[in-house]
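Journal club prep — side note

Before the paper discussion, L.F. wants everyone to see what a predicted structure for a comparable chain looks like in token form. Sequence:
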Amino acid sequence: MKTSIIRIERLLVGIGLLLISLQANSQDNKPSKEERKAAKRDKDYYNFQVVDTMVQNKSFVLEADYLENQYGIKRPVNSLINFIKLDSLKAVLQTGSSQALGSNGVGGATAEGSISGLKITKNTKNLTFFLRFTIVSNIGIYDVAMTIYSNKNARAEISGLGPGKLIYDGRITNLWESGTYKGQNSI
């Protein structure tokens, strides 16, 4: 009788240890709402720091997924040939189309020039950046107003000396990670 009680106790202890280890390895332990919020906040803050470095170095590319005109008509575009590139004190503003040939060889126009009047506003509460600058190029002068979010989404409104505006809507990336193709400078 004593040996059967010891065997039952050992069996119960073994089952208990097995259940504890199963629960510890279970994937059903979901993080709480507060833990998920904290993880998202940490990720957003980390991305904000990465974006801050790119903005301060003036070394990034806004690859547009959509172009929008002044009437709100939005069209999907190829991000490899529709972009705004900042590299130190130089900038490239390009539009392109895979269906036509333009003056730049990629179905649009390429304005390459110097940056002037750069103003950067950093909003640490909303984790955003607002940039305003002018590109002086061989085909014109363009004012750019760009908003960059901590998730690396960005939106830039371009206006020239004439009426109208063009909005680039997409994501920013480092210069070395960008796969953009610059066409010939428009004349």
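L.F.'s comment for the group: The longest helix spans residues 33-57. Keep this in mind when we get to the figures.
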